[in-house]
TrEMBL record:
<dbReference type="Pfam" id="PF12802">
    <property type="entry name" value="MarR_2"/>
</dbReference>
<feature type="domain" description="HTH marR-type">
    <location>
        <begin position="10"/>
        <end position="145"/>
    </location>
</feature>
<dbReference type="GO" id="GO:0006950">
    <property type="term" value="P:response to stress"/>
</dbReference>
<dbReference type="GO" id="GO:0003700">
    <property type="term" value="F:DNA-binding transcription factor activity"/>
</dbReference>
<dbReference type="InterPro" id="IPR036388">
    <property type="entry name" value="WH-like_DNA-bd_sf"/>
</dbReference>
<dbReference type="GO" id="GO:0003677">
    <property type="term" value="F:DNA binding"/>
</dbReference>
<protein>
    <submittedName>
        <fullName>DNA-binding transcriptional regulator, MarR family</fullName>
    </submittedName>
</protein>
<dbReference type="InterPro" id="IPR000835">
    <property type="entry name" value="HTH_MarR-typ"/>
</dbReference>
<keyword id="KW-0238">DNA-binding</keyword>
<dbReference type="InterPro" id="IPR039422">
    <property type="entry name" value="MarR/SlyA-like"/>
</dbReference>
<dbReference type="InterPro" id="IPR036390">
    <property type="entry name" value="WH_DNA-bd_sf"/>
</dbReference>
C-alpha cells in the first residue's frame, strides 16, 4: 500500500519553500541581532529606504509588511525611540501619519548591509545559475502577489511607488 496522497508534488514544493525560509531566517536573524535589529525592524527600515522621500504612510507600511496597524505602530515606536525613524503628520489630513527614515536609520541599514548581503550571496545567489535566480525572483513575486496583495506597492497618493524588500 502506498501513501500516494502524501507524495503530492504540491506538498513537496511548499515543504521545500518552508525549509528554505526557516534556514534563511535563522541566518538573517543572527545578522540582524548582531546589528541590534529585529527582522521586522530591518524590513520596515528597508521599505522606507526604498520609498520616495524615504517615507511611507503608516497604513501603507503596515500593508507592505503584512502587519496590523497596531503591529506597525509598535515597530515604529521602537525605531523612533532609537532615532531611526520619525513620524510626520500629513498637513492636509491629520488622521494620516507618515513614517520617515532618519539619517541614523539609513546609516543603520547601510552598516548591516555587507553582512546581510554576504549571507544572501552564499545561501541564495551562489547555488543558482543567473537564469535560475531570475526565474526564482519572478516566481516569488507571483506567489507574493497572490498571498499578500498590496505588499509591493503603496496605496494612492504621495509616495505611491514600488518598494520591495
Amino acid at each position: 500500500m502506498t501513501d500516494e496522497p502524501f507524495d503530492d508534488p504540491r506538498l513537496t514544493v511548499v515543504g521545500l519553500l518552508i525549509e528554505v525560509h526557516a534556514g534563511l531566517i535563522a541566518e538573517l536573524t543572527a545578522v540582524h541581532a548582531e546589528h541590534g535589529l529585529a527582522g521586522s525592524d530591518f524590513d520596515a527600515l528597508l521599505r522606507l529606504a526604498r520609498s520616495p522621500g524615504r517615507s511611507l504612510r503608516m497604513s501603507d507600511l503596515a500593508t507592505q509588511t503584512g502587519l496590523s496597524t497596531s503591529g506597525v505602530t509598535r515597530i515604529v515606536d521602537r525605531l523612533e525611540r532609537r532615532g531611526l525613524v520619525r513620524r510626520d503628520f500629513c498637513a492636509t489630513d491629520r488622521r494620516s501619519c507618515w513614517a520617515v527614515l532618519t539619517d541614523a536609520g539609513h546609516d543603520a541599514l547601510r552598516g548591516e548591509l555587507p553582512a546581510l548581503l554576504a549571507v544572501i550571496q552564499r545561501r541564495v545567489v551562489d547555488p543558482l545559475s543567473p537564469a535560475e535566480l531570475d526565474g526564482l525572483a519572478q516566481g516569488l513575486r507571483a506567489l507574493r502577489d497572490a498571498v499578500r496583495p498590496g505588499a509591493a506597492t503603496t496605496t494612492e497618493g504621495e509616495g505611491a511607488d514600488h518598494a520591495e524588500p
